[in-house]
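Quick one, T. Sequence first:
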Amino acid sequence: MLGLLRPSGHCQLAPHQAIRQLRELGYRAEMQPGISADACLWADLGEDPMDSGCVQMEASQFLFYQQQIDTSAYLVLWQISIAGDHTLKRLDSDRDALALLVQKLGQWYSPEHQVILYEAADLPIWQPRLERVPIAELVNATLNQITTLVIPPQSSKQPDTTMLDKLGVPAEHPLRQLQ
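Structure tokens:
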């Protein structure tokens, strides 16, 4: 089997199921790595996710499970156009589910917090979509199957002075400064 697929994650059950079925039939099947979608995202944003940290998950997973969100790090929600779909059959946006997504994000972020609707360019000569909108406007945004939601940090990291003391980090070290 040959396909252009994400190797894992982002609720991509079909590739894993296909590999499992092929193996059960006696065929050799495996996934091979390729250029990752998040590598394109960070390159297009011109940001280093390690500067502030980053959490990535599929948008439906974000809705289905309880979360602890660190607002001092990036939050990336993949496939927001089908957020809340438990059937793996929907191909378009459900505005009610998007409203629930906005409501849940409201536990950590202000309605005015600017987020980025991201879509990688299909060809090197095209530009990526990097549309900034307030969280409150997500319900009205134009979304495609490939739209990813990038939520930049809303707060600063707070140094853990107790741990820094235990690690022997000097008082003048940049780690002791607010970020």
